[in-house]
Design brief:
The longest helix is centred in the C-terminal third of the chain and has 40 residues. The chain starts with a helix and ends with a helix. α2 packs antiparallel against α11, α4 packs across α5 and α6 packs parallel to α11. The protein contains 15 helices and 3 strands. A hairpin with a 2-residue loop joins β2 and β3. With 346 residues, it is mainly alpha-helical.
């Protein structure tokens, strides 16, 4: 997961509630997300399948409701991943253009058409890379993870150093509540939960790639819990650092001429050159995060595929479906069993 780019993309939901919304909103929402992750990790260990949520829904639902519920869950999950790609690429467009605005000292403002053109180009480029770069996808993911941690470390070290004489107090970081919205204060705090919910929202990607993993019964739950747990911990630390280094006049940060609150935070602490360097690294990691979620979305909508309970199939039915070159996936006595395409078995 691209932790810091995701936080940067959603800071506008956390900052209006003040430092309390940034710090404690992250911590509380991540707690509940982890509980959901524990349940999903249990299912992913018992029944690892690329179908994931929709297959589990079909497996556990009553015979009269399993088909419509499975359809609803499956397509909601697919549309969610596709929508996530669009959201990530839109965030990339804003970050990329903010670098240009910083370079021009805020004397240029991108139009909606320019933002959309950059967004569209990013989507198309992601499609090309995900289609033609399958052989290097594993290496790209390794590079992505390394760059993600480099960005996190650079931020949590550079910001406090850059704001050494202007850091906010402990009371401000952990106890200052504000409300820069038209909603009640309590609801503004709840809206700050949108940042961790969006950031940690793709932890089920491990499930969609379970058929390509070795020892999936262990790898899938470990991947889910490690991704949520690491985002919970590192995100909490990042939010504390941001609350410590942010301009106490939060309206200035939200209304930044750079178009991104994170760009303003970097600029205030590190100046123009520092902001350019970290924002450049930020949009690169954001771009690579888009590749990752596109791969997950492709696995979710992957076909042709028939997902069935093998207990319900006769041997003749299995042979018929195999002959048609379709993949049959299911579980027999709680164990995962797949019949791959007939051509691959010959």
């Amino acid at each position: 997961m691209g932790l810091l780019p995701s936080i940067a993309s959603t800071l506008s939901y956390s900052i209006p509630a003040g430092p309390v919304g940034m710090v404690w909103g992250w911590f509380l929402a991540s707690t509940f997300i982890f509980i959901v992750g524990v349940a999903m990790a249990d299912l992913g260990s018992a029944m690892p399948t690329s179908g994931g949520l929709y297959w589990w829904t079909h497996y556990f639902a009553s015979p009269s409701t399993r088909n419509p519920l499975s359809f609803l869950v499956g397509y909601s999950n697919t549309l969610g991943l596709v929508g996530g790609l669009c959201s990530i690429d839109y965030g990339f467009a804003l970050m990329f253009l903010s670098v240009i605005v910083i370079a021009k000292d805020g004397d240029w403002t991108p139009s909606n058409g320019v933002v959309y053109a950059v967004f569209l180009g990013c989507v198309l480029l992601h499609g090309v890379i995900a289609t033609l770069g399958q052989r290097v996808m594993g290496r790209l993911q390794t590079v992505f993870v390394v760059m993600n941690f480099v960005l996190i470390l650079a931020t949590i070290i550079a910001l406090p150093v850059g704001r050494a004489n202007q850091r906010n107090s402990r009371g401000y970081i952990f106890g200052e509540t504000q409300n820069l919205t038209s909603w009640p204060t309590g609801w503004a705090f709840m809206l700050s939960w949108l940042s961790p919910i969006w950031t940690i929202g793709a932890f089920d990607s491990c499930v969609h790639m379970s058929e390509e993993a070795s020892n999936a019964t262990k790898a899938v739950p470990q991947g889910i819990l490690m991704s949520i747990g690491s985002c919970w911990l590192f995100g909490f630390v990042i939010m504390i650092v941001l609350a410590a280094c942010i301009d106490p006049n939060l309206e200035n940060v939200l209304g930044s001429k750079f178009g991104q609150p994170m760009a303003q935070i970097y600029y205030d602490a590190l100046g123009k050159k520092g902001a350019l360097g970290l924002m450049t690294l930020l949009f690169i990691v954001q771009f690579m995060m888009g590749i990752s979620i596109l791969v997950a979305a492709s696995r979710q909508s992957w076909g042709p595929k028939i997902t069935l309970n093998l207990d319900d199939l006769s041997k003749s039915q299995e042979r018929t479906l195999e002959a048609e070159g379709l993949q049959i996936e299911g579980f027999v006595d709680g164990r995962s069993q797949s019949i791959v395409e007939a051509q691959e078995k010959k």
